Amino acid sequence: MGLALSALAVVLAGVAGWALTLGQADISTAQVWTSAWHHLCAGVSTPAGGWCPANPLSEIQDAIVWSGRAPRVVAAAAVGAGLALCGGVMQALTRNPLADPYLLGVSSGASVGAVLVLVLGLAAALPVAAFVGAVAALVLTLALATGRGGGLSPVRTVLAGVAVAQAGSAVVSFVIFWSSTGDSYREILTWLMGSLGGATWPEALTALGATAVVGTYLAGQARTLDAFTFGDVSAASLGVAVTRTRWVLLGATALLTGLLVSVAGAIGFVGLVVPHAVRLLVGERHHRLLPVAALAGATFLLLTDTASRSLFEPRELPVGILTAVVGAPVFAVLLRRRAAS
Amino acid sequence: MTATSCGVETTLEAPPERIVTIKSSATEMVLALGAGNRLVGTAFADGPVPADLAAAATDVPVLAEKNPSTEAVLELEPDLIYAGWESNLSADGAGERAMFQGLGVATYVSPSACKGPAYRPEKLTFDLVFDEIAEAGRLLGADEAAADLVAEQRAELDSVVRSDAGLTALWYSSGEDVPYVGAGIGAPQMIMDAVGLENVAGEVKDTWTSLGWEAVAEANPDVIVLVDATWNTAEHKRATLERNPVTATLPAVQEERYLVVPFPATEAGVRNVPAVTDLAEQLAELGVTP
């Protein structure tokens, strides 16, 4: 297990390093690495021996690699890992294989907040609005789904999520239909399909920090999550305070999703597909599933984002298009397997 | 009088007396041809009309801020609907052209806005813009006004001092995560050609295109054309360029080498030539040398 995780981490690091050297700008791999060595070295010390190479990159090239690609690579990995974690946890908590941040209305709530802001032209407040929208949608979903006794049934949760998601997307459509002028709808479209094109260091580090903190917490709850997969009654008999624990864990995933959506827009399919794919490889147990899903999600989004900015250069695709194009067939295969078994 | 636009033929027995326009480019065309008194409704204004048409536009009724509904248009009993975008005359817009034509209402779409591969212009040129002015003049029974306008605009275009400094430019229309910019075959390219600017996205065979920030930085344009729209101002785009750490390093951003163009002038129509004059003057004032 440890070996597999290390191997995955090495693959992720390799893909990240490779992504850093890929791009529209004509900068060679050697230049990128020399420049990385220069920065690391200059950051640590000012050596007398002169073993620090000069930065081979011009000021603009340096900004392209270290202010453009590098935070984007970090953000893609962090968002991918976080979304996969959220999906895996939500699937366990609702005992619904379709659960992901989309299904519970969280992404759609974030979209409502963001679209309102984009149309009103208050770009600075976008992350906050997306985050508030995400949390509001989850609270609404959970409130709708809560039974009289305070219980949260999986089926009701999913139905409530669908209702909130539908209402959210209706609001988004209305705002776009009613008030988008000229080419402003394009910006909304880019956001709705997800994009890491504008990722900055503060955003990348926010995503990374949030995923690390919430991810560590969730990974620590692996036994509890295992208990949930056998059903509420079994979980209760194993000593889990079912209702309260579910609220806390769902709240944590909403918090993380809201932050990730505020950084990257609404990227679909990562949270849905990656945990399923990983389950096929390592089984249902969460102490294995969650770390592997996080690393796999990071690698998956990093690869799709790199493709989205390289495939049609100098054009750029919203990465959500590619995650869906790759994710939908994978999901279809999973569904067929499930039907066959 | 018969005209074909985007593959749809339309016939008017007599010059239209009741005209509805959708989009600024169509409204301004009708105003510039001196037919403003026959406008019974305008819709989908992208911004205020330019100063020289403002007097003609004062009494023109505004039908809708966006696409009007079919009923609202029909209620005005127009004999011609003139649209700036093909989508204005679709089921999602004011209604389909075949439906209007069946009711005896002629429809016309700016030919440069046609999307079908057979009708879309290979590359927008001022000759095509002038052709549209002439055709609109024939449709409106204002041939003379159209001929005068074309002659006037040709002369103005010829008098523009085209920069020969070999400067490159980015036409920044919208977008923050991924900028949306003027590409190789639309009005932005035509205007930049006339001003003497080399479009950094000119290789892309499209009217407008999304372009990664890295591609923008790599191209390192000498000047940046900011599209000024009420919903996304030039000032806002300037702030975006300064905030983005990649574009903040560009000399054009650091030295504020910006040109500003109003959004309604960026679609094919009577405002393209004035936009060329305006941008050429702004460029001269910047005094940039590559």
Automatic annotation (TrEMBL), chain A:
Its Gene Ontology cellular component terms are: plasma membrane
Q: Which organism is it from?
A: Georgenia soli
* Membrane-spanning segments: 73-90, 102-122, 128-146, 158-179, 199-218, 248-277, 317-335
What does the record give under GO molecular function? transmembrane transporter activity
Location(s), subcellular: Cell membrane
Q: Which family does it belong to?
A: Belongs to the binding-protein-dependent transport system permease family. FecCD subfamily.
- What's the name of the protein? Iron complex transport system permease protein
Topology of this chain in the membrane: Multi-pass membrane protein
